[in-house]
Amino acid sequence: MFRNRAFTIIELLIVIAVIAILVGIALPRFKGMQDEGNIAKAKGELRTLQTAIESYYIHNSNAYPAALTTLTSAIPNIIGSALPTDPFKVGTNYVLATDGATPVKYYVIYSVGTAGTGTASVTTAGVASDSESSVIYVTNGAPRDTTP
């Protein structure tokens, strides 16, 4: 007369399988959303660093800084007392690369990008280029022409 109301092992396994499938679908989307957030963060921080460099240029006899670390002591009201770190390479700051000329005329500040291994450079003519498409950068020169 009384029927046992507990779940069977088969029913529990089916529920666990359904949950596993849903998690499998959600995880890649979560990683993509994390990357999108980090890209937006990097772009914002790079714009702030570019503003700080241009402010340094104006206030230091039209000379660009040799390193980003110079900005924390020279212009702390723009970027604060510590440089922001690259969200794609934990514990590493963004990188400042110059054209190599004396005095420096062109610069590029970059994040290694989602692949975590990218670089960027700028020529003495002011043309910036990157080593891979995931690199995020700002420059006072001209970006590389990507038209075919």
Folded structure, characterized:
With 148 residues, the chain is an alpha+beta fold. The protein has one domain (9-143): Glycoprotein, Type 4 Pilin (2-Layer Sandwich), CATH 3.30.700.10. Helices cover 41% and strands 15% of the residues. The protein is built from three helices and six strands. A three-stranded antiparallel sheet has the order 1-2-5, covered by helices on one side. A three-stranded mixed sheet has the order 3-4-6, with no helix packed on it. The radius of gyration is 24 Å and the shape is elongated. The termini are far apart. The model has no long low-confidence stretch (mean pLDDT 88).
Which features does this protein show?
148 residues, alpha+beta, Glycoprotein, Type 4 Pilin, three-stranded antiparallel sheet, elongated
Please give the structural blueprint.
Elements: H1 9-59, H2 69-74, H3 76-79, E1 95-98, E2 107-111, E3 120-122, E4 127-130, E5 136-139, E6 142-143
Parallel strand pairs: 4-6
Antiparallel strand pairs: 1-2, 2-5, 3-4
Q: What assembly state would you assign to the polypeptide chains in this entry?
A: single chain
Hey, roughly how much beta strand do the residues contain?
Answer: 5-15%
Class from secondary-structure proportions: alpha+beta
CATH superfamily: Glycoprotein, Type 4 Pilin
**CATH topology tier name:** Glycoprotein, Type 4 Pilin
Order of helices and strands: HHHEEEEEE
CATH class: Alpha Beta
Q: Report on the biggest sheet.
A: 3 strands, antiparallel
Span between N and C termini?
Answer: 79 Å
CATH architecture: 2-Layer Sandwich
Q: What is the number of helices?
A: 3
Count of domains: 1
Q: How are strands sequenced across the largest beta sheet?
A: 1-2-5
Give the low-pLDDT segments: none
